[in-house]
Structure formats: structure tokens, C-alpha cells
Amino acid sequence: MEKIKQFKPLLGAGLCLVSLSACQTTGQTNPIYDKIPGKMQASVKERQNPELEENFLTKFLDGIDFKGDLAKKDYKFSKDVKALKQKEKSLGLTGNRQDFEKAVLRLHDESSLVGPGYDYLKKYINRVANKLLQHYSEAHIDPPVTFLITDKNYYTARMSTFNLLTLPTGTLLNIASEDELAAILAHEMSHSIFRHMNSEVWEKLAAKGVRSGLYTLGALISNKLGVDATATGIVTSLIDDPVSDYYTNVLAYEHKREDELEADLLAVDMLYNAGYNWNSVLTYIKKVSAQTPHNEAEETAKGWFHSYAFSHPSGKVRYQNAKYYIQKEYRREMINLPRLKIDAYQRHVFQGVGFKAIERRLYFNQARLAFEKKDLKTAEQKIRLSLRGKVNDPDSTIRLLFYKIRKAQGKNNKAIKNLEIAANGPEPTYEVFDILLREYENIKMWDKAIVAHKLAKRKFPISETSYMATLIKYQVMARKDKDALYTLQACENNRQNTKENKRMFHTCQFSFNDAMAEREGRKNMTASET
């Protein structure tokens, strides 16, 4: 105990240094407009995040292993890369990672809306995006941006790691001009231009480096003092918890917050270059900030540390950052500020082919509200209007609601038909298959369950273990014992390869035995009832 007491001043000093560092780095997130020498577009190359490839540092850090509870905090770069490749392979992809990201979106029940109206809107959005990129010579986005329109009611947009830009219908309904649309697209494409998506891997590696250094330091100090292994663990955990928390919630998030500020400023430059009203960036920031709970009052109420556990800066900071940047760099140009292109946006989105897609969502929302009020007659009328008389329209969102309406009406066969139409469409969500398979199980349509399960595997990154085990169950229940044994043999053939394959074999074996017992139990129960 005396030696532990000797360590306390060192530990206290270390924590004081961490606290001082926190004070220097935290407080209020500051705008960055005054740190940029000239326009943001001139600083893009030096501010880009390079893609991380395997090198001496990644191999060195991968070679460090944490044991016990600490293994949960471990990060392996090579394992991360390998996991992505395995997921892509499971989908049968050949290098098109956007297809993988689309499948992941559908797995989380967020699919791209389809149909002539949506195709028209996507072409319009693509023209605006190309106009922004054509007038900015330094822009290089690889792979090229692909646009998806999804059925969400909020005002936002999201750029994925591999440049899949998602725009909800709620955003399109709340945009007032083509300039505002350009501001949203420019902000999201700026993330790709700066390669902000690469920063997460760097942050994970840096966190492991910090943690490895802390544990090495703790072990050296404890060894110097002659402290036993248990005390060493206590000492290192006392250092690790606050420092790791500080790194994760403050330093890493500080980089993400600065990424948002950078994207706002580059968006201003891109709008100016393309002839759009660059003040629309301020309009976009106001709207997107108005619907988020992140604000200064909440930060003050919950304390300074909580205020920095946000990946985005507050709306006030973002607005000030963009506003002062515009005043600094575009003061003289303000006299020639372009008029808002309101008519152009209204013509494309709220008239003609584009409006048919918007109108469809409005009918769908009316049907959803009627269903929630248990007004099934109105719900059916509105959902039919949203389908526009197309009997085989595969829209997953509409078909799922129609399924629920039919179930509430007691029309089970018609309810299942809606799921089957959606499942065979180009953009089904995983929820469609999840419910459809449960319906097939309830009515013991095992042959159809096998077909639907195989189709789901082709469309989603379902784990091989889960897929094989469920397939065996359906094959046994359908009395396709030869097929079930063949699938079980396929599991056994991979048994020796890895721990994961060994687990898969045991799961498949259990599924086979359990399904056989369930089938025979049903058979015996039926015989006794007779």
C-alpha cells in the first residue's frame, strides 16, 4: 500500500496534464473561417484526409494485443479491411462498393424509391450536382456520386463512405429554391472532396496508439515501484478510462465538427462558382439546425463535456462560421448576388412528372395517418391512390403499409401478396423478407419460405451461419431431407477452416436436430389427436 501511495502524485500529475489539455482543446467549438488564408477552395488539397493503407504503423499496432476485458477495446486495421471484403464477397460484389452500401441501407429498412417520377427527380438532382462540380476544377470524387431518394420526413441529407448521397422526400418537400438544393448537395459533396470519410480509421488507430502508450507507461511505473499485477491493472485503468473518454468524446469529435465547418465553407465557394445564390448555404444551415436537439441551451444545461460529445457543431457556430466567411471573402460580390431560382425548382419538383412522385408520398402519408386512427376504409383508399392503379408496383414502403391494412381487415392472403410483390421488386427492404418468412412459417408454406430465404441472401449481407441454419430448418420442415443433409454437409466441409466455420457447423447441426424433433413432434401430436 505504501508503494501505491507513492504513485498517487504521479497519477495526479498525469490527470492534471490531461485536464489542462482538455481546457486548451475544448470550451466552445470555434468557427474556422478566420484560419483559412483566402478562399476554402484554395486549401482543399492540403486539408484532405488521405486514405489509409497498410503500412509499418498499422502492422505495428495490429501486433499489439489486449487481453481480457481490454480485448473489447482493441482495434485491428487488417481485420477491418478483411471484414469489409468478406461482406462484399457475401453479396457477390465485384468492386462496386456502392451496391454494398445500398444493400446495407435496405437491411436497415431504408431503400431507394423507384418509378418514373423518382427517376426524373434524380436526373434533375444530378444535373444540379454536375453543374456544381463542372465549375470547380479541383473537385475529384471517386467513385462518382450516386443519388438515392428515400421515404423519410426530415430535412437532411447524408453522404456515405463510397459516395452514396441520400436525400429524403422530406428534404425535397421543404426546399424553396434550386439554390438551396445546390447548397445541400455542395455540403455533402464537400465531405467527399475533403475525404472526411477516411478520418474514422485514423481516429481508431490513434486511439489504439494512445491506449497502448498508456498501458505501457502504467506497467513501467508499476514495475519500477514493485507493484503487483493487480495493482498495475488498477493503475492503468485509472489512467485509461478518463483519457480514452476524453479522446473519444472530445478529440475525435472535434475533428468531425471541424469537418462540418469545412464542408460549409467549401459549399459557399461551389455555389458562387456555379452561379447560385451562395447565401443559400445559410438557409440550409438554419433549416437543418432547427430540427436537431443540439443547441447552446442544452449544452449549457448539461455541462461543457456533454457539449463536446456531439459529432456536429451547433447550428449557431455553423451559421456564424459561414456568415463571417461570406462577409470576409464575398463582400464585394454581394452587390451581384444572384436571384434565387425558385421557379426552376418548383417546375421540376412540384409540377409534371416530378410532382407525381411527390404526390405519391403525400397519399402514402395520408394512408399512414388514417391507419394509425384505425380508419381502414380511408387508409385503403389512400394507399390505392399512392399505387396509382399499378397492381404490381413493388415499392416496399407502400406494400408494407398495405400489408398491415390487409391484416387489420382480416384478409391474410391479400396481405401476404403485398409482401411477395415487394420482395420480388428491385429495392426490397429486409423488413419485407423478415415478415414474409414469419408469415410462411405460420401457415407452414415451407417451399415458399425456402425460395424467399434464398432470394433474401442474394439481396442482403446475411451471415453465412444464419443463412445456412435457417435454410436447413426450412428444408427439414418441407421434408426435403436430402437437401437438408446436403446443406449440412456443406457446413461440415468448412468445419476445419476457421473458428467461425466451426461455430457455423455446430449451429447447423443444432438447427437440423431441432427441426427434425419439431417435425416429428407435430407428426406424433397429429396422430394422437386422430
Describe the structure in your own words.
With 530 residues, this protein is an all-alpha fold. The chain contains 24 helices and three strands. It has helices at residues 2-25, 44-47, 56-62, 77-90, 97-107, 116-134, 169-174, 178-194, 199-225, 229-273, 280-290, 296-302, 304-307, 315-329, 342-349, 352-372, 376-387, 396-408, 412-423, 430-442, 446-459, 464-477, 481-493, 499-529; strands spanning 146-150, 158-159, 164-168. It has a three-stranded mixed β-sheet with strand order 1-3-2, with helices on both faces. Helix 22 packs antiparallel against helix 23 (481-493). Its cofactor is Zn(2+). It holds the Pfam family Peptidase_M48. GO terms for molecular function: metal ion binding; metalloendopeptidase activity.
List keywords for this structure.
3 strands, three-stranded mixed sheet, 24 helices, mainly alpha, disordered N terminus
Short description:
With 530 residues, the protein is mostly helical.
